[in-house]
Amino acid sequence: xxxxxxxxxxxxxxxxxxxxxxxxxxxxxxxxxxxxxxxxxxxxxxxxxxxxxxxxxxxxxxxxxxxxxxxxxxxxxxxxxxxxxxxxxxxxxxxxxxxxxxxxxxxxxxxxxxxxxxxxxxxxxxxxxxxxxxxxxxxxxxxxxxxxxxxxxxxxxxxxxxxxxxxxxxxxxxxxxxxxxxxxxxxxxxxxxxxxxxxxxxxxxxxxxxxxxxxxxxxxxxxxxxxxxxxxxxxxxxxxxxxxxxxxxxxxxxxxxxxxxxxxxxxxxxxxxxxxxxxxxxxxxxxxxxxxxxxxxxxxxxxxxxxxxxxxxxxxxxxxxxxxxxxxxxxxxxxxxxxxxxxxxxxxxxxxxxxxxxxxxxxxxxxxxxxxxxxxxxxxxxxx
Length: 384
Fold this sequence. Notes:
Layout (H helix, E strand, L loop, with lengths): L2 E11 L7 E11 L2 E7 L8 E4 L4 E4 L1 E6 L6 E2 L4 E2 L1 H6 L3 E6 L12 H17 L6 E3 L2 E2 L7 H9 L4 E5 L7 H13 L3 E4 L14 H7 L3 E2 L11 H10 L3 E5 L4 H13 L6 E4 L12 H13 L3 H6 L3 H7 L14 E5 L9 H6 L5 E7 L2 E4 L15
Parallel strand pairs: 1-4, 1-5, 6-9, 9-10, 11-12, 12-13, 13-14, 14-15, 15-16
Antiparallel strand pairs: 1-2, 2-3, 5-17, 7-8, 17-18, 18-19
């Protein structure tokens, strides 16, 4: 049995929006890749590995709710190798595919769409770049798909439908029946919202979202062109779908939508993504930038803002990770105020709009990165 003890934790951002913070000093015992205990003071001794958190903050690894991988740690969209590893250094330990749409020469017939979804899913299950959990294999909706196709894919473990609007199925009326089939077989359905983002995509309105009824209204702040915030508010008020804000979107709209969700006490529906790789680029710190944006600009407590990229996403996609709780996978990272910040700790720095410094990233109880090469250096660093 492998054991890791993280001691001397200043506070824990739990990822649970109902109980988002625990004040320290605390310690966390990890056994065989899962959290075995969380206690005040020192919860164990004799662990094979001990990490002194130096009173920094422990948080769940971030879940990027909107990515466009293809195969391996390469993105043809930006002709770039290593984008997943770079995201790991931004605290991201899990990624969810919104469709492997950037595959060069991607065929658009139903048989090929099914094959691509299954192949991508299986490849990322067999090879996790830098240890990151990539939930790939998001079926792109193409004309001609039948209910039997959704049943077959579900039986093969495919659980995602890529953004509606990226395939030949572009209208809500065409997509509606497929959404019903997908949900019948336990699949999570994502839907592009807003203006066109890549050649061949389509503009999606508030009415389209309400008619299609997806699981997630993707980038409600645009991808990158957005629907008017008043229309976005209709999606929030008239549907029960998860609301996603992304870094590669309209930030004024993100502010208005984030503020509206806070004021109407609907932050439990909000999740955060990058929507990268995209034309905007590869954004390794995009999820942390969205967390600090929502916290600093919308005046959301840091510990709550972190839930938007961890526990909230866990609930939407039925994941095991995304929360600091006994029995959960030990997908974690240690953060602190960056050197030079006005904030004295991670919470204060985030609420002032500063990116935290990352001192460690762990997946399934295994340290995958120590001091991040991408964030500012943390004011305090863990001792290994």
